[in-house]
Amino acid sequence: MPTDTKRLPVPETSICPSTLIEDISAKKLPLISNNKRRDDRLCTQLRHVYAKLKVISQAQGSAYIEIGNTKVICSVYGPREVKKRDEFSMDGQLCCDFKFATFSCPQRRSHLSDNEEKELSQQLLNALSPAVCLNKFPKARVEIFALVLENDGSAFSAAINCASLALVDASIELYDIPVAACVRYDGVNLIVDPQLNEEYSHQESNLSEENGQVLVAYLPVLKQISALNHVGCLSSKVLNQSMKLCIEATQKMHTIFQECIKEKVKSIMD
């Protein structure tokens, strides 16, 4: 059989050997010890946030964000004219696509979208839709593509933040900038901006114990919640406290995003 010289002779699927090594010491360590987390953060402390606009020249708008070791890139295309009659609408349309890069997680992901990514794509649409002025581009569509390059926890909230900045870079009119944050409750402590080893897992959950995670997408200027995602088992009291911590975290990140947008505007003016 003829060989394809343009491709490397490697397996179609592969797993990094380091992911097969179990870190037994990490499993024995509690999430909180001496009021500090494993990365020496306090329970309510956010990771370092870095954001940059206009990172993809071919897109109408784009953004890149790092929250700790979690890295997400997002691109926005449009508004584009909707040609099919069955998709005609006097209001504009949003189409969101959320995807994990194959190398972004400890276990290699498929290059095809799975059920989790399809569900998160719909949740991304629900979080962004209330903030976009859809009546400003009738008979048109805006497409948003969010790609997680590295997942070290709170990847979906980072994707919402990155998509918001990409919409701003694309000059899409917004009522407000959606900002998202995540809080994990381990049964004792409320942990803001959890890392991958701190996130809620269905496999480790116990229905008899109170344990879960809350994500809030918030519009800081309008003071409205655009999306709420809750997994696990939480009482109404803990859920209320988690939402308050999420809102406080989004207000802190909103200030960072405002500075990022200001720097972008200044660079254009100069």
From TrEMBL:
GO biological process: nuclear mRNA surveillance; poly(A)-dependent snoRNA 3'-end processing; rRNA catabolic process; rRNA processing; U4 snRNA 3'-end processing
Keyword Phosphoprotein: no
Location within or outside the cell: Cytoplasm; Nucleus, Nucleolus
Chief site of localization: cytoplasm
Start and end residues of each Exoribonuclease phosphorolytic domain: 45-173
GO molecular function: RNA binding
GO cellular component terms given for this protein: cytoplasmic exosome (RNase complex); nuclear exosome (RNase complex); nucleolus
Top-rank lineage group of the source organism: Eukaryota
Keywords: Cytoplasm, Exosome, Nucleus, RNA-binding, rRNA processing
Sequence similarity: Belongs to the RNase PH family.
Subunit relationships: Component of the RNA exosome complex.
Function field: Non-catalytic component of the RNA exosome complex which has 3'->5' exoribonuclease activity and participates in a multitude of cellular RNA processing and degradation events.
Name the record gives this protein: Exosome complex component MTR3
